[in-house]
Amino acid sequence: MDTVITARLILRPLIARDAPAYADIRYHPEVARWLPASAGGDPVDNAARTIVYFAQCWASDGHGPWGLFLKEGDEEGKLIGHGGLRAIPEFDGQTEILYALHPEAWGKGYATELGRVSLRYGFERRGLPSIFAITKPDNHASQAVMTRLGMTYRKRVTYKDIDAVWFEIEREAVGSA
Hints:
about 30% helix; alpha+beta; 3-stranded antiparallel β-sheet; 5 helices; globular
């Protein structure tokens, strides 16, 4: 599991002690509305299970979602979301770029910063031929991030009973071949 430093973020795999802060983000109503429904139960326990799942992604696929931590300033080290790469069995194991940030972190370019690093990681370090992203059709902010990353709308899909739009980018499109 790799840690990556960007201009403003520390991207590192989440660990068990991150569960309470991660639950505050994942189950924030403004964030949860864009994600598949939770199974219910205690949010911190659910967050801890998700952290274990993310670690399994890293172990089995060589990539997975990171926690996004602020690098500097008054809130240095603060967890603001998760994001990175994940293979999706429901889509024949193709790799998705995903991100979810606390609303206080929205509109500051963090998702795009994470996205650029994730695409580079997937294409250059993992040799992936393409990477996709999906979101609900009315999540225009997420679609704007996808477009800034050079991704192109391809189709509508259903994922976990959610109608979604699929954007994709191929390795050759970013010059990493």
